[in-house]
Amino acid sequence: MAHSISAQYANVDFSPIQALTDGEVITHSPVRDIRLASGKVLALITLDNGRDHTRPNTLGPATLTALGETLDGLTARAAAGEIQAVGITGKQYILAAGADLSDISKVGSRDDARLIAQLGHKVLGKLGELGVPSFAFVNGLALGGGLEIALNSDYRTVDASSAAIALPEVFLGIIPGWGGAYLLPNLIGIENALEVVISNPLKQNRMLKPQQAFDLGIVDAIFPAANYLENSLAWADAVLGGKKVERKNEPGKIERLTKWPIAIKMARGMLESKIGTVPKSPYAALELLDKARSGTKAEGFAREDEALADLVTGDQFAASMYAFDLVQKRAKRPVGAPDKALAKKVTKVGIIGAGLMASQFALLFVRKLQVPVLITDLDQARVDKGVAYIHEQIGTLESKGRLDADSANKLRALVTGTTDKSLYADCDFVIEAVFEEVGVKQQVFGEIEKIIAEDAILATNTSSLSVEEIGAKLQHPERLVGFHFFNPVAVMPLIEIVKTPTTSEAALSTAFVVAKNLGKNAVLTADAPGFVVNRLLAKVMGEAARAVYEGTPIIDVEKAFAPLGLPMGPFQLIDLVGWKVAAHVQDTMADAFPERFYANENFHALAELDAVIEKDKGGRVTGWTKQAEKLLKPAVGSTPASADTILRRVQDGLASEIKLMLDDGVVPEVEDIDLCLILGAGWPFIDGGASPYLDREGASERAFGGEFHTPQIRGIENR
Ligand SMILES: NC(=O)c1ccc[n+]([C@@H]2O[C@H](COP(=O)([O-])OP(=O)(O)OC[C@H]3O[C@@H](n4cnc5c(N)ncnc54)[C@H](O)[C@@H]3O)[C@@H](O)[C@H]2O)c1
């Protein structure tokens, strides 16, 4: 037992972290002895914190200690021959949601952080050293430490209807540090493990479905929800009786020697080009996965202890905990949202415009609100195209089994395309997504106001125009509110709700309630050019255009932005948004703040856009490099900017713009800006949104001689 996990942690003193627990100890006794058909006895532990499913089991120091004691008791019983196996499962729908993050974020010193990792290893490691086989019955949610319970066990089954399964640690700025980084690649091979440990968390924290977990080899057997435990116990009995368990993706010698180092190298290259080198957790995870190729479990666990100790006390984790708090708490209780009771009940939605945005959110309205939705455009052909898109999307959902035929037909029946605006008379919520021009928007609202009821709410999806100006010609401007979706609508969780000086409480309240019912997070902003996200993205795009104008090749400009960690480079983003919309936003920003936005000067080539766009059937120009090269021409005789210069300019530009936005009251606090950037621009969660990053990079200091956050939020105090 020289390399046993129990021996490794036998003499560690855990008393410094015992005080961290908030006292919510998961009760998991009495352990139930279950006599299997063969006559063997399996002792079953059920993790259950006694709360409803909204409060999942989490693993804090006290819970772990108690679980460790239970496992010690079972080891003794196994040695005495009283039990032949141990099983571990969770309360209904939940195995465990992982480490108790409120505990971890309270950790002050590196030594204490290491103790958290060591305690998890010591306790979960026991599952592999009981003297009898251990079985994890993954009956539901298994995230982080929850999944590591299963990985430390000898065998695993999963309930086919389980909720998410994942190792999300990298997304939170840490690494799977209770065995995951060592055990997973040794179970399912390096390429699969890279997917689960690094790629999925970086893809907006993607989770695995039970079937995927089974296909990857993370679990050995999958059973339907009905009789899941009975089937799992019978399966365990068969395994105890000698049934062979096939581990199809378990790496062999050849994979370890050849595929493993190549996969790591490729993953590193991919990471560097996708997220730059600033975020630490993906690289720390990569290092651990690399080393997991050889050496003992005890060595692997010791490496995880050190990596976790580094990351938990680093500034990136502090920033991601700040982001976690924003998304978990602030996003759920939007600042400035009026009383829900003031909201108007929405029974029929009118949508004006059937283009890129309108057709996407029309689908969301029918799916989430399940009310009739009318959609219109300039002519029947455009209306038909929008409706066809919605029908096609419903069809896709149906073919993927996410909607049954009945519901799909019901949804289709709720969508009506029309050029007859009189049908809008009984709509209580009308939203426009026509061209980004004040005159056009004023005209459509003028027309619709004559038709709808006096108290119907009007909303505009404008990206950057003044909502007040859009409503200037309305008889009841108080009913107008900005309701700014992000593209792609199905994916982006944010809606910026814009209040003008006249917007009524009823209109505002309705907007918040509708946003919530659409399953989106809403943030209230003032009626300032570009609101929050587009103002800052325009800054990014403007700096990119400026660098090209100075003669920097587009590909170098894209690369210079990589350290920001945004989901894509600035030109790729312009291509996604559509060059026409992007040009409008830049123009609006440059008109509003000519001294700080470069649109007029350097985006002048965009004037050529209309012609290019008209040629493109889908309304969007594809092949961003080619288009960008064509449209953005360097000025004669200028000097290309270096990557450092470009990055520093954009960092300083963002820092000063954010400061100005706060001074002008666009939103009350910098937290709202970070929330918008995380949810609306995909700003990396592990950077905590923009402001902690700009503080850390010294940009805040350079831009306005201060900082947005206290050292605590930036994590500096912990170093
Ligand atoms: N593209 C984006 O990523 C994005 C994101 C958020 C907000 N927006 C905003 O949404 C709005 C629409 O943008 P889009 O990208 O969907 O543009 P789009 O060109 O795809 O769609 C606009 C549609 O409005 C129709 N239209 C124009 N005038 C009309 C009128 N008088 N009556 C009825 N229909 C009319 C057009 O025929 C077209 O189908 C703009 O205000 C834009 O700023 C766009």
UniProtKB/TrEMBL annotation:
<dbReference type="Pfam" id="PF02737">
    <property type="entry name" value="3HCDH_N"/>
</dbReference>
<dbReference type="GO" id="GO:0004300">
    <property type="term" value="F:enoyl-CoA hydratase activity"/>
</dbReference>
<dbReference type="InterPro" id="IPR036291">
    <property type="entry name" value="NAD(P)-bd_dom_sf"/>
</dbReference>
<keyword id="KW-0443">Lipid metabolism</keyword>
<dbReference type="Pfam" id="PF00725">
    <property type="entry name" value="3HCDH"/>
</dbReference>
<feature type="domain" description="3-hydroxyacyl-CoA dehydrogenase NAD binding">
    <location>
        <begin position="348"/>
        <end position="527"/>
    </location>
</feature>
<dbReference type="GO" id="GO:0006635">
    <property type="term" value="P:fatty acid beta-oxidation"/>
</dbReference>
<keyword id="KW-0520">NAD</keyword>
<protein>
    <submittedName>
        <fullName>Fatty acid oxidation complex subunit alpha</fullName>
    </submittedName>
</protein>
<feature type="domain" description="3-hydroxyacyl-CoA dehydrogenase C-terminal">
    <location>
        <begin position="530"/>
        <end position="615"/>
    </location>
</feature>
<dbReference type="GO" id="GO:0070403">
    <property type="term" value="F:NAD+ binding"/>
</dbReference>
<comment type="similarity">
    <text>Belongs to the 3-hydroxyacyl-CoA dehydrogenase family.</text>
</comment>
<dbReference type="InterPro" id="IPR006108">
    <property type="entry name" value="3HC_DH_C"/>
</dbReference>
<keyword id="KW-0511">Multifunctional enzyme</keyword>
<keyword id="KW-0442">Lipid degradation</keyword>
<dbReference type="Pfam" id="PF00378">
    <property type="entry name" value="ECH_1"/>
</dbReference>
<comment type="pathway">
    <text>Lipid metabolism; fatty acid beta-oxidation.</text>
</comment>
<comment type="similarity">
    <text>In the central section; belongs to the 3-hydroxyacyl-CoA dehydrogenase family.</text>
</comment>
<dbReference type="InterPro" id="IPR006176">
    <property type="entry name" value="3-OHacyl-CoA_DH_NAD-bd"/>
</dbReference>
<dbReference type="GO" id="GO:0016509">
    <property type="term" value="F:long-chain (3S)-3-hydroxyacyl-CoA dehydrogenase (NAD+) activity"/>
</dbReference>
<comment type="pathway">
    <text>Lipid metabolism; butanoate metabolism.</text>
</comment>
<dbReference type="InterPro" id="IPR001753">
    <property type="entry name" value="Enoyl-CoA_hydra/iso"/>
</dbReference>
<dbReference type="InterPro" id="IPR050136">
    <property type="entry name" value="FA_oxidation_alpha_subunit"/>
</dbReference>
<keyword id="KW-0560">Oxidoreductase</keyword>
<dbReference type="InterPro" id="IPR008927">
    <property type="entry name" value="6-PGluconate_DH-like_C_sf"/>
</dbReference>
<keyword id="KW-0456">Lyase</keyword>
<dbReference type="InterPro" id="IPR029045">
    <property type="entry name" value="ClpP/crotonase-like_dom_sf"/>
</dbReference>
<keyword id="KW-0276">Fatty acid metabolism</keyword>
